[in-house]
Amino acid sequence: MRRFLLIAIPFGWLLALFLVPFFIVVKISLSDVAVSIPPYVPQFSWETGIGTFLRDLDFENFVFLTTDSLYWKSYVGSLVIAVISTFLTLLIGYPIAYGMARAPEEWRATLMMLIILPFWTSFLIRIYAWMGILSREGLLNQFLMWTGVISEPLTILNTNYAVYIGIIYAYLPFMVLPIYSALDRMDTSLIEAAEDLGCSRLTAFWLVTVPLSRNGIIAGCFLVFIPALGEFVIPSLLGGSGTLMIGKVLWEEFSSNRDWPLASAVAVVLLLILVVPIVLFQRNQQKQQEAEQ
Amino acid sequence: MNRLSWFNAVSLTLGFAFLYIPMIILVTYSFNESKLVTVWAGFSTKWYGELMGNEAFLSAAWTTLKVAVASSTMATVLGTMAAYILVRAGRFPGRTLFSGMIYAPLVMPEVITGLSLLLLFIGVGLDRGVTTIVLAHTTFTMCYVSVVVSSRLATFDQSLEEAALDLGCSRAEAFRLVTLPIIAPAVISGWLLAFTLSLDDLVIASFTTGPSATTLPIKIFSAVRLGVSPEINALSTIMIGIVTVGVITASLITKQNMVRQRRDEQAAARTQ
């Protein structure tokens, strides 16, 4: 009995507040928008029964997603931005993780804390910090003009470039930590062996270090890619009107246009897109755990 | 290998500069005399004064704190239970579903979690306000707590629990007297994680709140959409300060505990 209660409480909580809401989203994505409170007409009700529901089922909101170019452009835009920024985060994060793993033993705890510290700081504040730096009168432009690199201020804020910078900045710790832990566990004598056997340092790096940190790289890329895809705060603060990202579109559909059925349809499709990387990520984590045991 | 090569030194310096310079600039300009955030006009703490007089910010901060304390405490209880079930309860019907529901919220985009909870609250006719934000935050943060706690539960020596049971403890007593003290550091870091996530959350709170409750992130977001302001810089500086002090204290305590533990272990090894 006690065991039943112990399981039932968290199980019931998650069922009620995590799983059921998803079915509600799916259900509302199939209903029609209306000027009322709440602003939609339910497609399915127990009074009319499942027959009427199936007869009237028209996937109208999903059809609309394919006909209005704003939506598929936003999905594609999110994917492109997420892929490019994940790649750039890897390029910047790998050398940092490598440097940390090869730093003297007594520094590592401090370096680790310095990487984790930003993670505890408000996400919103970290993104806000870039608004003052990237604007036309901002410090980056002031600095570049002062050094004479440019003579006219660059427009960076409210473009996709600012979005890339924001994503890299916000998610860098997620990339560095798994790569660091993979590199930290690596046996450095393998590199010495490769060098003794005639590899140059660079070839040894490519043929030994990179493959051995592969799991860390994969985990880091997923940890950046998955949240970047549905990102809302970064495109709305740093991006411009030309930045099409699906998280932002969903938010606007919900808050400005008050079209909840369409917002739900946007969410359902986003979820379907995310299922692939999430499943791949889980599988990678599982494989890694099994390999460790 | 114990000396930094120049390449590693350069990449570490550049990397940490990239992570920290924006923060340092933000903090510096909170002490700027001028209203323009990008032009330095002398040292002043007047924005902190204005912030303290801003009723809207203060009441939002109070709401945020209430929500964070309530939701992280509930999340810690539920998350610890969930972790215990995942690691110890063995097989039960729906186990796969249960562990899926624990891990899924960790990777779910906030916009989807927020929207789905909003539709649920509307569906059951719950008035949106502090209560609904607390329910929403408890749900997504309990999963983080259970991940942190279950990794500790998985590594600790079960024979200690069995010994307590053999010596006449009930299951509940064994949990309270043996298991809980051992996993306490993980439970505390789980609580802290849940607390910070709740303090920080903008998207889920915006979806699930009504006109009656505004949290600090919602307030900050609507202010910064209009542009940069020194008052927000001052507020950010206070928040960064609190976090920095907290994290450094926590890591010093962990370090001390580790030193003590090692000493105890050595002493134990000597007496044997």
Short structural summary:
The complex is a heterodimer of chains A (293) and B (272). Chain A is an all-alpha fold and 293 residues long.
Oligomer: heterodimer
Biggest sheet details of chain A: 2 strands, antiparallel
Per DSSP, the total helix count of chain B is 11
**What general form of chain B does the structure show?**
globular
Query: What's the CATH H-level homologous superfamily of chain B?
Result: MetI-like
Q: Give the strand order, joined by hyphens, for the main sheet of chain A.
A: 1-2
CATH superfamily descriptor of the domain at 75-246 and 275-292 in chain A: MetI-like
| Regions with little confidence, pLDDT below 50 for 5+ residues of chain A | none
Topology:
The complex is a heterodimer of chains A (293) and B (272).
Chain A: H1 2-29, E1 32-33, E2 40-41, H2 49-56, H3 60-67, H4 69-101, H5 105-120, H6 123-134, H7 139-147, H8 160-185, H9 189-196, H10 201-212, H11 214-229, H12 233-237, H13 246-255, H14 260-292
Helix pairs in contact in A: 1-14, 3-14, 4-8, 4-11, 5-8, 6-8, 8-11, 9-10, 11-14, 13-14
Chain B: H1 6-29, H2 46-52, H3 55-88, H4 95-107, H5 110-124, H6 130-155, H7 158-166, H8 171-200, H9 203-208, H10 216-224, H11 230-271
Helix pairs in contact in B: 2-11, 3-6, 3-8, 3-10, 4-6, 6-8, 7-8
